[in-house]
Amino acid sequence: xxxxxxxxxxxxxxxxxxxxxxxxxxxxxxxxxxxxxxxxxxxxxxxxxxxxxxxxxxxxxxxxxxxxxxxxxxxxxxxxxxxxxxxxxxxxxxxxxxxxxxxxxxxxxxxxxxxxxxxxxxxxxxxxxxxxxxxxxxxxxxxxxxxxxxxxxxxxxxxxxxxxxxxxxxxxxxxxxxxxxxxxxxxxxxxxxxxxxxxxxxxxxxxxxxxxxxxxx
Amino acid sequence: xxxxxxxxxxxxxxxxxxxxxxxxxxxxxxxxxxxxxxxxxxxxxxxxxxxxxxxxxxxxxxxxxxxxxxxxxxxxxxxxxxxxxxxxxxxxxxxxxxxxxxxxxxxxxxxxxxxxxxxxxxxxxxxxxxxxxxxxxxxxxxxxxxxxxxxxxxxxxxxxxxxxxxxxxxxxxxxxxxxxxxxxxxxxxxxxxxxxxxxxxxxxxxxxxxxxxxxxx
Amino acid sequence: xxxxxxxxxxxxxxxxxxxxxxxxxxxxxxxxxxxxxxxxxxxxxxxxxxxxxxxxxxxxxxxxxxxxxxxxxxxxxxxxxxxxxxxxxxxxxxxxxxxxxxxxxxxxxxxxxxxxxxxxxxxxxxxxxxxxxxxxxxxxxxxxxxxxxxxxxxxxxxxxxxxxxxxxxxxxxxxxxxxxxxxxxxxxxxxxxxxxxxxxxxxxxxxxxxxxxxxxx
Lengths: 217, 217, 217
What we know:
The structure is a homotrimer of 217-residue chains.
Chain A: H1 11-36, H2 41-63, H3 69-72, H4 78-88, H5 99-122, H6 127-148, H7 163-179, H8 184-203
Helix pairs in contact in A: 1-2, 1-4, 1-5, 2-4, 2-5, 2-6, 5-6, 5-7, 5-8, 6-7, 7-8
């Protein structure tokens, strides 16, 4: 449709803002997990940093364009610190069991699948591989959080879809880029769709077929 | 023996083919683990990608020559997808408990210790350190698979040797390169030897001495 | 105070020596964990390498200046091999339960928070972000060791402080650099302080407040 999509001037700001919001949402999920597991404030700060920054750091290491954003830009230190503080002062509480954690996790997932894909595209990765990298960015932060805290990663939870909404969002995000219509508005729409998709799948307990056909009837 | 070993023209193709086969074998082991743990098809695809691509991605990140192969070459998406499909349609089944999984894992181990070492050597890493990187490549995919799925990693299983065959294969592979005789034939022989070594060690339940002498009598 | 701090000529040697010592201490903690878990000698060597080299490799990958030290300099192979041998021949034994392991872990923590911060600063990372990287270096080796062996990571242990001494050491280390007074002597003093801080916190069972205020009374 267009020979070389010219990234809009504000794209960098757009990605930075969305990325920082995604970091915040995942960081809250980390601190809430720490509260649920009765870890101390140090464990809470640590899980906030790991869940918030883990996905983006792995993405940037794979893209291999110098020091990862999270270690180059001090702004990235703020969202995890704020998240741990909000949980500590109980301005964000767990609500009914795991529900609040999962809502924040879903918001982080929605933002990171979009920013991950766009960051990869901006670094010159092809649209198809950028989808893979977007899904990885979205999934890795929560995965590190769960593995380190010895929880079964959410991606394996049979009730609700996790990677599928991320794949959907990364695919749409990559398509918007190819079509040259990736803007604040379209980005927001994709993120809302992913967020809604994930939450509806949780509420309705959507499930995917088993790993081996007929194994789980 | 030779001043500067000239890599054969077909070396790149050789390594790509072997690497893709190794990805496939490890990917099958990931999907079989998902089936055994009654994860869904998403978890199966995820473990196929993680087990299949994890070792090579870590290797490429350490070598630090741009974007890892698995994220640069779309061919790498095929083996994990095929592996998850084969397990889903039960064209590969678990056989008696964990046996099939371990056979595919052994095949992946045999291929990756060779391709990991050669990729490192081709990137200018010294022969001794290439052995360390080869073993890491071979071991990391299965390790990530087991850690994420909360299994005890196969490397700690007291029955059968895991890292030793990989070390043996990486060492031989590095030696072949130094001697300038790394070809399709010699590579195949080393991989067969590693595969056989691993399977015989499993069947005969070979074990290594304990971490502390006399601790385990 | 000074416009551009000129790194002393011996800084490289200083960092290498301290880094190798830190690798040794963490490697011993890995082998001791293997002995306690009754893993075999292979598992012991593996955990020695993972705990000893893990933190530095992650640090070097994030700094993104070529192949990580541990894969570029064969000297790094020696400390983990020596550590596994010392544990095997029972020249280092577990003493009373986990105590010896924790002493070696504390020594590694003390050294790595300093060398991690300095390596980051030498690579041009800003003083504030270098602190984050120093803490990461100090914490990651032990974290990988515990996650892979399926232990609850020491950082989540409610009795004793882990990340706080590392943060204290990284902060001081970064300050020394900025003031231009980072030398053998000051480095040694910081490391001793971190080591003592960690051990006293363990003995006195210092604890941090819970992740959510009032949650744990």
